[in-house]
Design goal:
Elements: H1 5-26, H2 37-47, H3 50-57, E1 58-61, E2 66-68, E3 72-74, H4 76-85, E4 89-91, H5 110-127, E5 135-139, H6 155-160, H7 164-180, E6 185-190, H8 210-225, E7 236-242, H9 261-268, H10 270-277, E8 282-285, E9 289-290, E10 293-294, H11 299-309, E11 315-317, H12 325-328, H13 336-346, E12 351-352, H14 359-366, H15 372-388, H16 399-405, H17 409-421, E13 424-428, E14 441-445, H18 471-478, E15 484-488, H19 501-509, E16 513-519, H20 563-571, E17 577-582, H21 590-595, E18 598-601, H22 609-617, E19 672-684, E20 687-698
Parallel strand pairs: 1-4, 1-12, 4-5, 5-6, 6-7, 7-8, 8-11, 14-15, 14-16, 16-17, 17-18
Antiparallel strand pairs: 2-3, 9-10, 13-18, 19-20
Length: about 725
């Protein structure tokens, strides 16, 4: 019998089409990608139990949810979380650090990370009733905090670039690296203003200024989220910490903030507003209270400001265990159920840590203390983002793409560019810098000269040694074999029990010039104890060299250990000394400013920091960074920032009131002139427009990059203003 293949193909096609139409008729509305998001959310909410809804709001610790043996599988803890808690979101599944006890050996590289997140989604789909994909949130402040990713300069260094476009480019790389591994949400940017420099988390901020912070925050949001959350390379941005977290009394992390509503609205909320208007999908509340109202239960912040005034459409989330803190730290409620009621009714949608928006929340809903409408509102906001990301249709990632696309050459090159742009030249007496590459010998000294973790900052995963270029590495990469390089550590950051000052002096005396690298450290170690929130537990028995980073608040800003003694000994050799400061916050460099001819501030410059520093030292890059935060002369001046209120500031009996180096300061190897200033204004009704223009010219001998800064003052106002 003769068979017509054409007819057979046609029959098969028609049969396939009829099955497809039949399947579409049976498809649940929330699974239909052609329907509007709001309709899908409404349909899914109608099918969910109270327990399933609470599960979407409860965010558990992610690194406990996988087992790594010969292959990566889901853990029994995850299986229980799905079956009993109907979990909808995990946090920091891919995180690795001493707190999580995840190392390079027992943690996940990008290839395995993609496999692990795929395993999580697959098991959940196969064992949950409604097959709602799991949201995976990760720490992403200056790189995805996971093994094998790119570690950029910390935010205070990013702020020193004064270049939002560059930061947006960086954020896009961070987002791509996180998304390729299966993450959907990136915690960052941090939009707190750094006006309390004793506070341990200054390094995570963009500095002291609302405008600069807002511009950088908006750039991060745009880089993270892009134009399409379905792209496979973008993530949702979570703004933190809402609000006024960076000015705690006494510098105590998470401490009380005594702030009036005008200052809150005028200074501390505008950066968040700018980032919300840029499209941020999520906002995290702060641990602190403002005038006695905890931020995690503050309806003025979470409803009036965020929703009513700014029109925010995303979801809010607590900082880790901060809802429980309403009972344990704040003492504003007596128990967990009361904490759940207070927080969710104030407008807080989800619970990072998951201990309160679980049984306590379920009990509160069933008792009528929390309405079903409010529960559905919170759950609906999270489900909407899952639909917008296309996770119901495509929850998986490609491990091979993760292997190739994370920490690639483009990311490494961008890392170096940002580290270069973050360099702030504070002093260059007699044009000591840049050095000649034909120099005969150089001594490289200091605790931060060859320490990979001390130049990376907090929220950093364990590193492969080959991924980090220290200052010593950078100098070696820059110079030929003809130059003699002598390295001596000299001292530690905090430890005073041992030092090599004598050896450092001998190396300096035998060299043409000395490069000394001092500062601080936010490098976590396995000896330090950590609180449940992940902050370090600082006590009399603490032995870490860490003096900055979450939990490491300071009562002084002096160089610790024997660093100043080392610097003074090197200065006495009579050889030229260049000081490089690698640190998480401004430290006391009064003596150096008076006695050392060249000072370069680098904050924590990231994996390519050593190459970037060498580029600046030897003139392959002309520094253009500007301070995003004022460097004080003493803690007795604090707070010291440029935009203080229009009231009289005067010198102290024992010293000036001005900072050692002011916000916006930074030198160059070349000179710039400003000419042809023109100012014009126009009015239309109550609106005033002022146009300012001028010409900037490079009048020096080197190519250079200038940051043009415009400052405004209100000469007459109805209230006292900055």
């Amino acid at each position: 019998m003769k068979i017509s293949w054409t007819n057979s193909i046609l029959v098969l096609f028609l049969l396939s089409g009829s099955l497809s139409l039949s399947a579409q008729k049976k498809m649940l509305a929330y699974k239909n990608p052609d329907l509007p998001v709001a309709e899908r959310v409404s349909d899914l909410l109608a099918r969910m139990t109270i327990e399933e809804k609470a599960g979407q709001l409860s965010v558990l610790l992610g690194w406990e949810m996988y087992d790594k043996n010969k292959v990566v599988t889901v853990s029994d803890k995850f299986k229980t979380a799905v079956k009993e808690k109907h979990i909808g979101m995990l946090w920091a599944m891919l995180r690795a650090d001493p707190w999580t006890k995840k190392t390079i050996s027992n943690g996940l590289d990008p290839f395995l990370a993609s496999q692990a997140t795929n395993a999580i989604q697959k098991w959940n789909f196969e064992h949950s009733r409604l097959q709602i994909p799991i949201f995976l949130a990760e720490e992403c402040p200056h790189g995805h905090m996971a093994i094998g990713t790119t570690v950029f300069p910390t935010a205070i260094g990013q702020g020193s670039t004064w270049d939002p476009g560059l930061i947006q480019e960086m954020a896009a790389v961070i987002a791509k690296e996180a998304r390729l591994q299966g993450a959907h949400i990136g915690y960052g940017p941090v939009l707190d203003l750094a006006r309390e420099l004793r506070w341990s988390r200054v390094e995570e901020t963009y500095g002291e200024d609302p405008y600069l912070t807002g511009a950088m925050g908006a750039a991060m949001v745009k880089g993270f989220q892009g134009n399409d959350l379905r792209s496979g390379k973008n993530i949702i941005s979570t703004l933190k910490h809402f609000a006024a977290y960076g000015i705690p009394e006494g510098g105590h992390n998470g401490g009380f903030v005594n702030l009036g509503p005008r200052a809150l609205l005028q200074d501390y909320l505008p950066p968040f507003k700018t980032a919300v208007k840029a499209g941020a999908g999520s906002v995290m509340t702060a641990y602190n209270s403002i005038d006695g109202i905890p931020c995690s239960a503050n309806p003025f912040l979470l409803k009036t400001v965020l929703r009513d005034d700014w029109g925010f459409k995303g979801f809010t989330i607590s900082d880790l265990h901060s809802i429980g803190g309403l009972t344990g730290n704040d003492h504003v409620v007596a128990g967990s159920t009361e904490a759940a009621i207070l927080a969710i009714n104030a407008g807080l949608d989800s619970d990072l840590g998951g201990s309160i928006y679980s049984h306590p929340l379920i009990e509160a809903v069933k008792s009528g203390k929390v309405t079903l409408a409010r529960l559905d509102e919170a759950v609906g906001r999270i489900l909407a983002k899952k639909f917008e990301m296309g996770l119901f249709e495509n929850p998986y990632t490609n491990p091979n793409l993760a292997k190739k696309g994370v920490h690639d050459q483009k990311a490494i090159q961008l890392n170096r560019r940002i580290a270069q742009a973050s360099a702030v030249l504070l002093k260059n007496e007699g044009q000591l810098l840049p050095l000649s590459k034909t120099i005969g010998s150089i001594a490289v000294i200091g605790p931060n000269a060859d320490n990979i973790y001390n130049q990376l900052g907090d929220y950093t995963a364990p590193q492969h040694r080959t991924d980090v270029v220290t200052v010593l590495d950078g100098i070696r990469n820059k110079l030929s074999d003809k130059t003699i390089i002598r390295y001596v550590k000299g001292s530690a950051i905090r430890d005073t029990s041992t030092s090599e000052i004598a050896a450092a002096v001998r190396a300096a005396e035998a060299s043409d010039v000395t490069l000394v690298v001092l500062g601080g450290s936010s490098a976590r170690d396995f000896k330090t104890e950590y609180l449940e929130t992940g902050a370090a537990n600082i006590g009399p028995g603490a032995i870490s060299d860490m003096e900055s980073g979450e939990g490491f608040d300071r009562s002084s800003l002096n160089l610790l250990g024997k660093q100043l003694e080392l610097l003074q000994a090197l200065s006495k050799t009579g050889k030229p000394v260049i000081l490089v400061m690698i640190q998480g916050r401004p430290l006391n460099i009064n003596w150096a400013a008076a006695n050392i001819p060249a000072i370069l501030n680098m904050w924590y410059p990231g994996q390519q920091g050593g190459n970037a520093i060498a580029d600046v030292i030897f003139g392959d890059y002309n520094p253009a960074g500007r301070l995003p935060v004022s460097i004080p002369r003493s803690v007795g001046q604090l707070p010291v920032y440029y935009s203080y209120q229009n009231t009289s500031r005067h010198d102290y009996v024992d010293g000036p009131s001005t900072p050692l180096y002011a916000f916006g300061f930074g030198l160059s190897y070349t000179n710039f002139s400003y000419t042809e200033l023109q100012i014009s204004k126009s009015t239309a009704g109550d609106s005033l427009a002022v146009k300012v223009s001028f010409t900037v010219s490079n009048t020096g001998d080197m190519d250079g990059d200038e940051v043009a800064q415009l400052y405004l003052s209100d000469q007459v106002s109805s209230v006292v203003v900055p």
